Model the fold of this input.
Amino acid sequence: MHIQTSFLFDLDGTLVDSVYQHVLAWMEALDAEGVDLSVWRIHRKIGMSGGLFVDQFLRETGLTTTPELLNRLRERHAAAYNRNVHMVKPLPGAKELLAALSEGGIPWAIATSGRLETAKPNLDALGVDPSKNVVITRDMVQYAKPDPDLFLTAAGKLNVPITSCIVVGDSIWDMLAALRCRALGVGLLSGGYGQDELERSGAMRVYEDPKDLLKHLDEVGGRR
Done:
């Protein structure tokens, strides 16, 4: 019996080259609230839920988390990110990869920890229309990565079993979320995490970027 493979993609650092814009936007937002953190510390947590991300930083710096502070930080981050969103481009091969899956009749969806306010420009750059394609954003689930809700919801919208899905992401948070919902994880190096880190977090294969994944699609069950 043939099992149809479906693909669930992270967005930032996986399909669009936006990780470092997010890092700098978070740094600006935190700096405005008097939270002094090095860029590398912020980068290490990109890809997880924004709320969890902020909670961890505030604990590390000894500041008290309040709903008002979280909302201000989220709004400052979104404003800072959207000022520089014109610099964000699809990663090499991203459009071609999604087109190849569609042409081959292979189901796919995008599941991002970002909210629609920051995800929309990136989706536009990819030519992905949420009214025609399955797109799950942070606004649509209770918890984001490393919880598996985003991917479980995406599989549900595709009407496919999560155990037949390949989760493609660039961060350890993607791979941990894939493990927790019993999907297979494929890591990409295009978000700044190393191969060893992705493999230790559960990635069964690691490729450079979407273009490299497209070249090796058959290796992960993407028969067309």
